[in-house]
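Fold it.
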Amino acid sequence: MKALGMIEVYSFTTAVCVADLAAKTADVAVVAMDRNRPKSATAPAPLVMIVKIEGEVAAVRAAVDAGVEYAKNEGKYIISHVIANPGDMVELMGYKLDINKDKYNKKLPKSFIGVETPIKQYEAIGLLEIQGLVAAIAGLDDMLKAADVKVIHTEKRLGGRLVTFVIMGHVSAVKAAIEAGIKSATALGEKFGDAVIANPHAEVMKFFDTES
């Protein structure tokens, strides 16, 4: 690992968007997404995520800068840092991965050390991050009824008090689904993130089981 870049943000949705933008900005690999709990109950979201990227120093710095700008614009930025030539133990910490393994991503490896990312085009993904399982499932039901999309990942945190669904499909379908999901889910719980990512980078898609 020539350089390790870390971007700490609030919410799973923000982390995925930051990772996608970083990978599109420079020739870097997204090696892990890790998580923590925020210190304050008044935080913008009850989940802290750390996006970790590796590559040449200049590329990592450019990717981190792009991710930081996005997170700041969303009001979800916490801190970032770039380590050139990290030591062996620091490098291993950089690869630490904490993403839920459920029916949608059981194939996810324990580590992306030495894993080649296949180049593949995806049209769009959508994310909806909601407080509470009831609200999230109600939103998911309307998303799947509103358009031709499929679920490729679920992220349940805080004992189900924070749930993110990730869907995939054509751009217009994903947009329609997310809009429908927001309407029903926010009637029952607080929304902490939503996004539609057109042409998501393969470095982000490797974290999701698109074949499920």
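Strands lie at 3-10, 29-36, 48-54, 77-84, 124-131, 150-157, 162-169, 191-198.
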